[in-house]
Give the backbone structure.
Amino acid sequence: MNNADEEQFAEVAQVKKKLFRDSLANLEAARRVRDEGKFKCGIFASSIQYDGEQQARMQALVDRMHGSVDEHYWLPLYSMGSLATQREQELGFRPIAGNQGRIGALREPLPCWSTFTEGHITHDGKLSACCFDAGDKWVMADLNDVSFMEGWNSPAFVKLREAHLRRDVTGTICESCVAYQ
């Protein structure tokens, strides 16, 4: 949840305003499904920690999400794998390289904590190695075809994690993220 309202969402992400409302409705629906089904899982949301007026606007959104999530946490502005670099520059944002974790617990970008600790599942059921996945760039497995554990331990995911442990992601899908200057 990185835009304060639907107008900003449409301007920054360059998509329809309705998608902002849909994202909030989906978050509320996820909470209902979890609670009604008594599923043992958490619902988390993160937001970019900006400064000044933008941060105050973001806090209003976080307050609005409060009843739908178990935990919200702040993140620094990442490079997002260089997917949004041009738009970030147009807006005057200066992202940091790599995924350094949460505000208050930042770490070196390699090895990326996300590839070892969190499963990111896309809207169509694919297991992604990265929370920045905006397509199929980081897909490690199709969970419509294999179990989560098979996907988590897939040869592609194992190979990617080995590169992260070596702290050399040259030639991998993660190279542009940590190489962002």
Q: What stands out?
A: The radius of gyration is 17 Å. The first strand starts at residue 44 and ends at 48.
